[in-house]
Amino acid sequence: MKLQKSTSLALYSVLEFAANPGRQLSAAEIAEKYGASTHHLAKVLRELGRAGLVESARGVGGGYRFSGNAKRLTLMDVIELFEDISTRTGESDEFDESSEVGRALGAVMAEIDEIAKATFRSITVDTMLKLIERQRRALALASTVAAA
Amino acid sequence: MNEARSEDTPEWRVRPAEAADLGEVIAIDAEVTGLEKTDYWYELFHRYGGGRTRQRLFLVAESGKVIQGFIIGEIRDWEFGSAPCGWVFGLSVRTDARLAGVGARMLEAICEGFRHAGVHKVRTLLARDNSLVLSFFRSQGMMAAPFIPLEKDLD
Lengths: 148, 155
What we know:
The longest helix of chain A is centred in the last third of the chain and has 23 residues, at 100-122. With 148 residues, chain A is mostly helical. Chain A contains six helices and two strands; from the N terminus they run H-H-H-E-E-H-H-H. In chain B, strands 1-2-3-4-5-6 form a six-stranded mixed beta sheet, sandwiched between helices. The radius of gyration of chain B is 16 Å and the shape is globular. Chain B starts with a strand and ends in a 16-residue tail after the last helix. Classes of the chains: A mainly alpha (148), B alpha+beta (155). The A-B interface holds A 71, 74, 114-115, 118-119, 121-124, 126-127, 130-131, 134 and B 128-129, 131, 134-135, 138-139, 141, 144.
């Protein structure tokens, strides 16, 4: 399952904001960090704002901050703001359904997609932040061991 | 096994299940699944209850003399080509006791039991559409295991 660029940017953005709940971040900061255009990211943030996941902050520099519920918001909730993968079955356009081989390959792709969707539905933003922190600690530990 | 107090719940603890707990365990399971499986639970208690072995754990979370949830697991050796590890195959929390850390405390207690018995990995298996419980285990740091469950219809 391949996610669209806007969806990936939305996931990056939500996780950046949720990791820094008290801090205002500008579209330009996030765009630079993830190699996206500020214009594209601004469109993504407007959509996240309409969904109530971020709110724009007034004042010097402006920017946005997280306004969602990190313990309730799942990756699937964010993804579905930008594309409908809940009904995607895997066999739609990659394989020709009119052939036996195409149908069989489509069934395999559908199996993979179902697992991906279940995974996106089961992971909250809060869980992602914990995962990021665990990976950060593991990396720091590995660096320490390598340096010793 | 462990005790805790939060703003939302009176003092509560996680301890091995006793025969007297079964009525409440059955009721919690029925509340969550919609099925009352009395015979199943008595049979399960016979095999897992009362802290009989270090390999099998059937624990309950108790608060103010009320059972708020239960967890069941065991250590399985060399199944599916895997080194001995703990398996959690049952966990449920009374619906009005959720979001108070009961599940997390029970999972930690059973993991402590597994560690005490000498294993360092815990696994579970869930239906793909059980997002609520999947989310819970994910929030506790569990990730996809290197196994894929398979099935087929038997004609």
